[in-house]
Q: What sequence folds into this?
């Protein structure tokens, strides 16, 4: 903010001198402070209301099995998966859901808007008996906590916030008195010590890497693993998570960080790696890389060794050069990305595309997270603490209450490169590995 000069001088950068006069000197007028900019009005909640509650009943099914299949990812929507069986409430209650997102944030606004679009797409499909209010959280910790506290007073269930720092602030507060679905993971918090009514269901690349490690260990028991990354912060997190789970599974592991310039792996290091693998081959490779780097790796070393990775190896349909180089590589990703022709995915509209560019695969995953966030919120509201499972567009979802603490688990979809594209694994008519 500009400050006013303490003497009557208009020329900036010049010394101010007293003004002489034949009459008595008048006292200089006091400087008038510049007007304060008007405080922006608080964002109004956008409410999507249903006048007459009419909960759609679910088909009757067996008792849900909330435990995921040990050491194995999901192998297709609906396989070995009981349907949700939440009964319709007999009192015709209208359930109020508050969705809290940083919609006006310069950095997170586009992601928040896309997640909101997914949430509302799911709401439009199963809106009977529910009312959704969408509110901007702001970006400062105090704004987030104030907005969250108000939502806890006014809503039956709260979904959000989205930013990791905001979720951390909520988790460290004593404000969580109603069921709350956080859309990210808090920093440095053991989920066993989170507030009892806080359910964390954000997408986690680290959780994905741990699932890949358990999957690979079930297919390659006792094998040694070589982890390859190119040094990006996200790749290091993926590498660390895989290594921790691989060691927990009882395997041996080594880590090699490769050099990359503008995303391209060093040719000299690829030659050295090829010689190393020929001399002492590990049981399998884990690529904490992006799709282009994994393709460079495969071209350099061949396809003799099993290669696993996370969704970072899938740039999305039409976003990378297709070809056979990655065929056989196994990875995990969301059903939304690898089962687009499945009926439970096709019932939802595709995300809105920006005018100037195509959505990235990660942005599409946030849209899918929005869809599942509403579906989980709906079930939590209807079931009042009872466990349930869902075939979600982000994976196989299970929610349970452990001694009063809400627990969430997501098992992502097994996939592999087949004929240059990512598809559900195992391929049709191929028995799974034993």
A:
């Amino acid at each position: 903010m500009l400050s006013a000069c303490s003497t009557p001088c208009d020329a900036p950068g010049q010394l101010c001198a007293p003004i002489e006069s034949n009459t008595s000197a008048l006292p200089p007028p006091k400087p008038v402070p510049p007007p304060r900019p008007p405080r922006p009005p608080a964002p109004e909640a956008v409410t999507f209301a249903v006048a007459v509650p009419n909960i759609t009943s679910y088909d009757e099914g067996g008792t849900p099995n909330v435990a995921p299949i040990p050491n194995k990812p999901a192998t297709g929507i609906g396989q070995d998966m009981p349907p949700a069986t939440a009964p319709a409430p007999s009192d015709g209650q209208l359930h109020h859901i508050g969705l809290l997102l940083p919609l006006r944030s310069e950095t997170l606004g586009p992601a928040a808007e896309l997640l909101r679009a997914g949430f509302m797409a799911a709401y439009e499909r199963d809106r009977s008996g529910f009312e959704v209010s969408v509110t901007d959280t702001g970006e400062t910790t105090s704004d987030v906590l104030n907005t969250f506290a108000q939502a806890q007073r006014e809503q039956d269930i709260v979904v959000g916030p989205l930013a990791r720092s905001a979720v951390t602030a909520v988790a460290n507060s004593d404000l969580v008195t109603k069921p709350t679905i956080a859309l990210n993971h808090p920093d440095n918090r053991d989920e066993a010590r989170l507030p009892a009514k806080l359910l964390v269901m954000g997408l986690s690349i680290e959780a994905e890497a741990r699932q890949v490690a358990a999957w690979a260990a079930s297919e390659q028991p006792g094998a040694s693993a070589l982890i390859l990354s190119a040094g990006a912060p996200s790749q290091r997190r993926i590498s660390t998570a895989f290594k921790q789970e691989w060691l927990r599974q009882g395997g041996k592991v080594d880590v090699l960080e490769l050099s990359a310039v503008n995303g391209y792996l060093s040719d000299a290091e690829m030659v050295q790696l090829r010689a190393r693998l020929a001399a002492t081959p590990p049981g399998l490779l884990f690529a904490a890389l992006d799709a282009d780097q994994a393709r460079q790796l495969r071209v350099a070393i061949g396809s003799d060794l099993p290669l696993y990775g996370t969704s970072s190896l899938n740039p999305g349909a039409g976003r990378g050069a297709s070809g056979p180089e990655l065929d056989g590589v196994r990875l995990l990703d969301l059903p939304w990305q690898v089962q687009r022709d499945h009926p439970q995915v096709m019932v939802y509209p595709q995300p809105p595309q920006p005018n100037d560019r195509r959505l990235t695969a990660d942005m599409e995953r946030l849209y899918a997270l929005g869809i599942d966030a509403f579906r989980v919120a709906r079930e939590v509201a209807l079931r009042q603490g009872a466990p349930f499972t869902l075939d979600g567009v982000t994976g196989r979802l299970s929610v349970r209450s452990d001694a009063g603490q809400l627990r969430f688990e997501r098992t992502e979809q097994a996939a592999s490169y087949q004929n240059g594209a990512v598809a559900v694994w195992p391929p049709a008519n191929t028995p799974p590995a034993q």
